[in-house]
């Protein structure tokens, strides 16, 4: 019968036909398999068709066989019988597979029992163990395919297990492999594990280990490892396999291990193979052992040097093997012996290289596992055993961490920053040169990656405000749902990394080799230094770390994040010691005191979260001590120690809200109570408020704080307790800064403060250099009268003590203005403070007195509306009298306060507007200042300059009656006149400057000297005052000073010309002035003029006159270029006076000078200047001069008509006062000189005169005395 016939044959019928291509008759197939005469090829073909039928048409087969149990049993028996008659391996494999599929599809336990019974019989009658191989193979496949088969075999046919032991001892690895496979399936069942437990312990264990250790074929090795994997799921079997019954000493003895050939050595042998699958299975089995108890089983593997070979396996490319090794090594890290045997030192390079290779694979879990292993090694490595002995490996590790931190997968980045935190340890990085630059890049990458995960802050808010954005009514971590857990973990790990970096920087401060790396070229600056790294930490904390955490706190508050963050800030105080104070100020000004207090109140009350409480308390303590060091310039070590003790004891218990703390300030301890906790809490809170407020963090309403501090002081006074100076200083400061928002202190409060302050040995112990505190003391008369002098003394002396060791004492004008500016509004509101300042001038040091005087000077300059002159003049007189009586000439000249005092005195006089009658105080001051000048030398410019200004003012800004008396006082002072003689002589002794002429202090004194002498000449002649001492001058020197000039400053030329005018007006015949003879040497070089002209012009020579005229003309041209109104007025006035003098002495010479053609060219030069108008003071005065002396060749009727027309069209109200005055003189001169003018022009002249007269009556009088540089000049004195 053909097995593959297309039509039914043998009478089986159509129902036995299976719908295959070609169709298969199942009955024929069964007959063919049972036919002993059928060839093996034919039977293999039938088996193959049956395999296909069971694979693709299992249901029809089952439907045919299941109803007929006899047929099923026959087919199963036939197939089972063929297992022991067929020797062809291919046929055997087909038989096993068909039989297994058939039993699986029939789903009947009786067939399994049938197979088990037949197997039992076959194993019992087998003459050789080799014939049992198909049976073992079949049983193994059935156990693999049918879940309950292993339980059935173990429970009802347990005698089969004895045959397995026999097969395992047979020297055939194929049979051993089949047996191990079957054992693996049996032990994978819980029932089998329980039933065969004793079997394994008593009979199988050592046989199995020997089999595994001696296995040569891969099939046996794999099946043994499969069995081992199942066994290692049970802690009991693991204990048996690891021989745990031996003593601990035996277990840790490597010789014992070597002799027993235990499991670690067997697995180590598999690691030595180059088969990655076996290596992976071996390492997986090691991990399966270690996971039960690393502390019990890890030593055996470590003593067997297994870690060394595990690290070697990391250099492969198999992800499965690498994963298994990572897992195994990770478990080994829990045993200290793993590190003490230096396996990590040996394998760290392999691990780093493995991580580099793994990062190129697209396996996130492998990345995470490798980083986890790296982290554990970094964390657990003993400090005494250096992990990175090769700097190159250390750099590679940093590169790996950098790459993983930037990994786009957040889970990998989280593990990476954990590894970074563990990496940043001193013992990992202590081998110079330390890669600071690489560490900076790593930290910056981690912080930036973390910052990228956090949304930006919605607005610029202070730290204290951020905490309030999270509802305080919710538990600590309620809001974490709004922040992904991974993101929170990433932030925490990043902060731990940054904190460890800060600790690292602090630890390296004591290591000289770590501060400056050795491999830096001489005379070159390296970026790899500790100082650069420390500055980087501080900078990136400010720019990146703090904003990032603040952004996170806007959304949620994690206690672990807060604790790490606050502790990091605390460490940063010591990272860059010279920046500690600046960093502390920035933290305090950013509301970190407020933030920390709120954290303590919210999470640390009722003794909860002690670690966070201690961290916050330590941070606040260090912050306050740093701020004390930064802000208190008069600090003492004793006070700092007391403050430190107070904060350390009090802050951990200060866990109240702001409102509760304010109420606490008003509480009074129970009488006779020994508990000082309330007092300690009050003092701590006041200190915190003080340091917060000094940096601008005013987080308590001012009115409430003002009242609380007031109550605190009253309570302290009531119980007779005086707070320490540093607490009292803070309390007074808080009162001062809040006084504008609170009610004024009542008399009781003021008396309390006064009594407390009276008990202090020194007010400076509670003084704070703050404008508001100064205002506080000066605002209340009760405090100002008692402490005003001391507070002002401290205010101005603060600059002397504020210098630190790193600062050079340098008191300049900016310091003076800074000291003055806060005091000026206070002075304006209470002018009696001025007297206190003047009292302090005499008793203070040089610098302090200088600043006080500069303050008064600034006040007088800026507050002209305050009438304090009378108040100050009498006090000035007392000070000058005291100085002159107590001081000699030498001490006066050495007194650096006196120049400023005199400048201030002059400024007080300058405040008087218009003419003023001098009173007795003024004359006494005049007498004292003139006496003071007589005691000076010409080089004492600091004293003489303000003194001569003062004398000059008294001559020009007073009434004629007072003026006459003032001139008499000055001319009676012989020493003053002798000084003026010396000052004027210095004019000829000074060498001409090499550069541009500028007004030095010496030149300024010369200007004041010449102006004062010119004034004395003028008024002595006017009032015919008695002269007790004459002044002698060489006229040639005076004339040469104007003629040749030699780059003299403009103001000095003006002053000398003013003297020359005064001398010319008196025809050189003043009783005060003696004109010396002409210089014969110079006269010998000059051509001799006619004796008649020289005699007429005596003491002037004709040549000198002409030279002086030319010089004055040239000066006018210079005026046109420089636009100097004062010089132009002085030159024109000098020219006018000179022509007047010549007209008296010799009219011909005068008319000759007035009609020189050069004057017309001079006029055109002036008219062609910037204004191009006749209405200029110098032009009008020159025109007046030419009209007066009828210089028709200089000025014609045409020019006069142009002037009249321009004046008639001009708005006289807008013209300067000097121009109006010059125009008035010009018009009057035309009327009086009988110039031929038309009637219309005469009317125009009269109209203009009337308008000018009305203009002069309504015009505002301007200040006559002005200060040019440091020289006082009377404009009327120069211009008239």
UniProtKB/TrEMBL annotation:
InterPro entries: ARM-type_fold (IPR016024), Immune_Signaling-Apoptosis_Reg (IPR052133). It comes from the Eukaryota. GO terms for biological process: meiosis I. This is Meiosis inhibitor protein 1 isoform X2. The gene is MEI1.
């Amino acid at each position: 019968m053909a097995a593959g016939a297309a039509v039914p044959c043998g009478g089986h019928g159509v129902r036995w036909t299976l719908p295959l291509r070609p169709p298969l008759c199942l009955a024929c197939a069964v007959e063919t398999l049972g036919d002993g005469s059928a060839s093996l090829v034919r039977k293999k073909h039938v088996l193959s068709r049956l395999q296909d039928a069971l694979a693709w048409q299992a249901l029809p087969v089952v439907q045919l066989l299941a109803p007929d149990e006899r047929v099923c049993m026959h087919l199963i028996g036939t197939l089972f019988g063929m297992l022991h008659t067929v020797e062809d391996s291919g046929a055997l494999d087909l038989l096993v597979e068909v039989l297994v599929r058939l039993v699986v599809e029939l789903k009947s336990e009786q067939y399994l029992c049938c197979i088990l019974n037949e197997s039992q019989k076959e194993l019992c009658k087998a003459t050789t163990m080799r014939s049992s191989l198909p049976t073992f193979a079949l049983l193994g496949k059935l156990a693999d395919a049918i879940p309950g088969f292993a339980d059935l075999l173990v429970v009802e046919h347990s005698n089969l297990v004895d045959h397995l032991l026999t097969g395992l001892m047979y020297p055939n690895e194929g049979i051993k492999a089949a047996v191990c496979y079957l054992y693996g399936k049996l032990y994978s069942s819980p029932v089998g594990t329980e039933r065969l437990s004793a079997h394994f312990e008593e009979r199988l264990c050592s046989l199995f280990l020997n089999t595994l250790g001696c296995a040569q074929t891969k099939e046996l090795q794999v099946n043994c490892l499969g069995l081992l994997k199942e066994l290692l799921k049970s802690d009991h079997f693991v204990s048996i396999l690891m021989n745990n019954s031996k003593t601990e000493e035996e277990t840790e003895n490597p010789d014992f291990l070597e002799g027993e050939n235990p499991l670690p050595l067997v697995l180590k042998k598999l690691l030595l193979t180059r088969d990655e699958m076996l290596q992976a299975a071996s390492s997986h089995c090691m991990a399966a052992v270690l996971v039960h108890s690393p502390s019990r089983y890890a030593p055996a593997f470590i003593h067997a040097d297994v870690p060394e070979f595990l690290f070697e396996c990391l250099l492969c490319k198999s992800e499965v093997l690498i994963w298994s090794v990572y897992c195994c090594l990770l478990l080994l890290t829990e045993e200290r012996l793993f590190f003490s045997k230096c396996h990590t030192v040996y394998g760290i390079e392999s691990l780093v290289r493995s991580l580099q290779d793994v990062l190129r694979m697209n396996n996130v879990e492998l990345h995470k596992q490798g980083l986890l292993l790296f982290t554990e090694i970094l964390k657990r490595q003993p400090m005494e055993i250096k992990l990175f002995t090769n700097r190159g490996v250390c750099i590679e590790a940093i590169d790996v961490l950098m790459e993983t931190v930037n990994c786009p997968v957040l889970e990998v980045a989280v593990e990476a920053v954990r590894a970074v935190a563990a990496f940043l340890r001193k013992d990992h990085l202590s081998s110079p040169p330390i890669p600071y630059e690489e560490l900076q890049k790593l930290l910056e990458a981690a912080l930036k990656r973390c910052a990228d995960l956090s949304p930006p802050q919605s607005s610029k808010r202070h730290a204290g405000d951020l905490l309030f954005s999270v509802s305080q009514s919710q538990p600590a971590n309620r809001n974490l749902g709004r922040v992904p857990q991974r993101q929170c973990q990433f932030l925490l790990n990043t902060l731990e990394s940054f904190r460890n970096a800060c600790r690292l920087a602090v630890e390296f401060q004591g290591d000289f080799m770590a501060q400056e790396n050795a491999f830096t070229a001489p005379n070159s600056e390296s970026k790899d230094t500790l100082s650069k790294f420390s500055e980087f930490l501080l900078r990136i904390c400010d720019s990146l770390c703090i904003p990032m955490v603040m952004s996170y706190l806007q959304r949620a508050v994690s206690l672990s994040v807060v604790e790490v963050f606050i502790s990091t800030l605390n460490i940063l105080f010591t990272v860059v010691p010279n920046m500690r104070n600046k960093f502390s100020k920035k933290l305090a000004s950013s509301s970190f005191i407020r933030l920390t207090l709120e954290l303590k109140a919210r999470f640390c009350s009722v003794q909860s979260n002690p670690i966070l409480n201690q961290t916050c308390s330590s941070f606040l303590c260090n912050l306050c001590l740093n701020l004390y060091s930064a802000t208190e310039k008069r600090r003492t070590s004793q006070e700092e120690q007391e403050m430190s003790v107070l904060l350390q004891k009090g802050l951990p218990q200060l866990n109240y809200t702001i409102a509760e703390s304010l109420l606490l300030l008003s509480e009074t301890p129970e009488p006779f109570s020994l508990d000082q906790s309330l007092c300690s809490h009050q003092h701590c809170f006041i200190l915190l408020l003080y340091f917060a407020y000094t940096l601008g963090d005013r987080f308590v309403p001012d009115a409430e704080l003002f009242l609380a501090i007031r109550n605190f002081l009253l309570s302290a006074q009531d119980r007779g307790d005086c707070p320490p100076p540093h607490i009292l200083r803070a309390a007074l400061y808080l009162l001062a800064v809040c006084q504008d928002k609170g009610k004024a202190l009542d008399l009781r409060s003021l008396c309390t403060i006064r009594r407390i302050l009276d008990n202090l040995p020194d007010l400076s112990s509670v003084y704070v250099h703050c404008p508001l505190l100064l205002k506080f003391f000066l605002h209340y008369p009760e405090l100002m009268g008692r402490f005003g002098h001391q507070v002002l003394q401290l205010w101005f002396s603060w600059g002397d003590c504020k210098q630190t060791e790193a600062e050079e004492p340098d008191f300049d004008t900016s310091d003076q203005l800074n000291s003055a500016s806060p005091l000026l509004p206070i002075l304006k509101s209470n002018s009696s403070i001025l007297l206190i300042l003047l009292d302090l001038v005499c008793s203070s040091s040089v610098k302090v007195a200088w600043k006080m005087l500069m303050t008064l000077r600034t006040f007088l300059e800026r507050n002209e509306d305050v009438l304090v002159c009378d108040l100050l003049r009498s006090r000035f007189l007392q000070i000058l009298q005291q100085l002159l009586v107590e001081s000699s000439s030498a001490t006066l000249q050495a007194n650096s306060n006196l120049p400023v005092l005199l400048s201030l005195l002059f400024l007080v006089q300058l405040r008087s507007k218009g003419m003023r009658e001098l009173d007795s105080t003024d004359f006494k001051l005049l007498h004292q200042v003139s006496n003071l000048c007589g005691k000076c030398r010409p080089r004492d410019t600091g004293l003489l300059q303000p003194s001569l200004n003062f004398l000059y003012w008294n001559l020009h800004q007073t009434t004629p009656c007072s003026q006459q008396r003032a001139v008499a006082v000055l001319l009676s002072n012989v020493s003053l006149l002798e000084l003026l003689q010396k000052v004027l002589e210095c004019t000829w002794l000074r060498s001409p400057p090499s550069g541009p002429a500028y007004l030095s202090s010496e030149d300024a004194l010369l200007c004041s000297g010449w102006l004062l002498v010119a004034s004395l000449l003028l008024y002595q002649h006017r009032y015919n005052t008695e002269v007790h001492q004459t002044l002698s001058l060489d006229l040639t020197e005076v004339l040469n000073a104007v003629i040749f000039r030699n780059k003299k400053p403009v103001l000095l030329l003006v002053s000398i010309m003013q003297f020359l005018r005064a001398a010319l007006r008196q025809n050189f015949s003043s009783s005060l002035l003696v004109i010396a003879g002409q210089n014969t040497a110079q006269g010998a070089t000059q051509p001799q003029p006619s004796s008649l002209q020289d005699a007429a012009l005596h003491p002037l020579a004709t040549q000198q006159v002409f030279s002086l005229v030319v010089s004055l003309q040239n000066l006018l041209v210079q005026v046109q270029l420089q636009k100097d109104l004062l010089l132009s007025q002085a030159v024109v006035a000098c020219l006018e006076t000179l022509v007047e003098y010549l007209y008296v002495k010799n009219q011909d010479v005068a008319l000759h000078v007035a009609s020189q053609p050069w004057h017309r060219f001079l006029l055109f030069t002036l008219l062609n200047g910037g204004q191009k108008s006749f209405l200029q003071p110098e032009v009008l005065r020159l025109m007046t001069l030419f009209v007066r002396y009828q210089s028709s060749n200089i000025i014609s009727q045409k020019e006069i008509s142009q002037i009249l027309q321009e004046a008639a069209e001009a708005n006289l109200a807008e013209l300067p006062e000097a121009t109006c005055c010059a125009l008035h003189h010009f018009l009057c001169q035309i009327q009086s000189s009988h110039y031929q003018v038309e009637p219309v022009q005469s009317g125009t002249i009269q109209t203009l005169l009337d308008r000018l007269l009305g203009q002069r009556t309504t015009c505002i009088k301007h200040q006559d005395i002005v200060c040019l540089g440091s020289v006082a000049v009377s404009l009327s004195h120069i211009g008239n």
